[in-house]
Amino acid sequence: MGCGGSAPAEAVSAPASNGAGNAIKAGSAYESRNIDQEMERAKAEEEGKIKMLLLGAGESGKSTIFKQMRLLYGTERSDDDLRMYGVVARSNIVVAVRKLCSHLRNLGLEEELDRESRENEELEEGDHSSMTCRQAYDELMAYLVDNTATASAQDPMADMGGKKDWVGQSPRAGLAANNDAKQFLAHHESIRILWQSNTMKQVWAKRSAVNIIDSHKDYLNDISRIASPDYRPTTQDVLIARVRTTQVVMEKYRIDNIDFEMYDVGGQRSERRKWIDCFDQVTAVIFVAALSEYDQTLAEAKRTNRMVEALELFRSVCNNRAFSNTSIMLFLNKKDIFAEKILYSDIAAQRPFCDYAGPTKDFDHGILYFIQKFKDCLIDDDFNDSFIHVTCATDTNNMEFVLDSTRTIIMTDVRHACLYFLNFFATETTILISEFKKVWLPWC
Where in the sequence does UniProt note compositional bias of the Low complexity kind (predicted)? Predict the structure, then answer.
């Protein structure tokens, strides 16, 4: 009986086994289809994404535009972000003061500072504190420049009445920035007094020789606020804060149901080798050049004019085969500083631009001259003027208009490219069908 009952059991079990196998195969096919669909969806999302790349020489304003993009379309800054920028702002002031004090000495203006101090004491004018501008200068030279001070600096918290400093320290800012921020709090009164002197105004007018960030004048005009224990960086403070970009930074935005990715890269020569990693599938390049740097030299190459460097860099970007089908926008930045600088720094007096024939101190002629210089870098002459913007990256209203215009141009270019390829494929398909009919129909 046992043998007789075994045959039906085997007969029944075989279909069950086949059914399980089919179920496994069906499940695998379903999973494979899901993977394929997910890959297709990811591919479609990637192809529909607008990838924008910020390029340009160092200190041209790329990172400021990057920050404006977040301000206009991204998330708000966290308290941790603001504390980092608070440390950076204080550090930026100390870096600027070091350069200004050294430049004052190199210009031989120490006697001028002595004369101004004596006159203020005799006339009882100027700052009515117990410190003269010469004394402020000597303190800053000893502690910040020459490092010859033997006595310890004043406790940075002494002037805060024991009140906790909101900014404090920020590990994200780095050790050097935190140490400079401490120096700022210890010597902010000396910095304020020296900055208000007439002698320092003369030094500031000749700042191009020492490559000081022009917008940091806003910090120097507001020392007391930045030294306050209640100091919390404003939007403007964040925008003008200078942090050197040493790696590729990317932010994502969704604007009008379209995904945007913006990449910021370091502009110094040592950082440009990293650019190649960002060249793949770029929708648009925003090239940033500082108009105000026509009379300055590179920090990393003192004999190279900054504007000449920007022009050569623009030439190499525009004529790079990687960007042959990419929209390229030119942002001529720092127009506000350019307007101020041309009043005392003649364009034609700079050796690389001695061919400037326009009137001196003329903003419009100066702008048109440099626009033509950049156009001369192009092999093709079809660079549309609508792709050129004269900007002030620290002005949010100006940048909102410019970035919105740029976004519109990019989207228009993308649509035109899509229509071109659709027409191309439609034409090719029509030709293939016509050839097929000619060759094969007679044989049918």
Answer: 1-17
Query: What gap in Å lies between CA 40 and CA 128, rounded to an integer?
Result: 72
Buried b (16+ CB within 10 A) or exposed e, 142-151: bbbbeeeeee
Per-residue pLDDT band at 242 (split at 50, 70, 90): very high
Phi then psi dihedrals of residue 55, to 5 deg: -125, 160
Q: For 140-171, how does the pLDDT look when each residue is reduced to its tens digit (9 = 90+)?
A: 999 999 999 876 555 565 556 668 999 999 99
Instruction: Identify the architecture of domain 49-74+245-411 in CATH.
Output: 3-Layer(aba) Sandwich (3.40)
In contact, 194 and 202? CB cutoff 8 Å: no
**159 phi and psi angles, rounded to 5 deg:** -80, 0
- Is 126 in contact with 196 (CB distance < 8 Å)? yes
Distance (Å) of CA 443 to CA 185, 434, 437, 438: 92, 15, 10, 10
Annotated binding residue at 214?
yes
Residue 328's SS3 state is strand
Residue 228: phi and psi, rounded to 5, are: -65, 145
| Residue extents of the structural domains in the chain | 49-74+245-411, 79-240
Q: What order do you get walking across the sheet with 249-255 strand by strand? A: 249-255, 258-264, 50-56, 284-290, 327-333, 388-390
Q: Is 419 annotated as a binding residue?
A: no
Sign of CA dihedral 403, 406, 412, 417: negative
Quote the crossing angle between the two packed helices 306-318 and 363-375, to the nearest 10°: 40
Please compute Rg for the chain using Cα positions.
Answer: 32
The response to whether 306 counts as a known ligand-binding position is no
Domains 49-74+245-411 and 79-240 share a fold: no
243 is in an annotated binding site: yes
The answer to whether 341 is annotated as binding is no
SS3 state at 329: strand
Tally of CB atoms within 10 A around 401 = 13
Residues 196, 197, 201, 206, CA torsion sign: negative
pLDDT per position as a tens digit, 340-361: 999 999 999 999 999 999 999 9
DSSP H helices in 394-441 = 396-440
Collapsing DSSP to helix, strand or coil, 382 comes out as: coil
Identify the CATH number of the domain defined by range 79-240.
1.10.400.10
333 is in an annotated binding site: yes
The β-bridge partners of 54 are: 264, 286
- DSSP 8-state assignment for residue 393: T
pLDDT at 1: 41
Catalytic residues: 59, 64, 242, 264, 268
Q: Which structure tokens are listed for 241?
A: 């804060």
H or E segment and range at residue 53: strand 50-56
**DSSP-derived 3-state class of residue 56:** strand
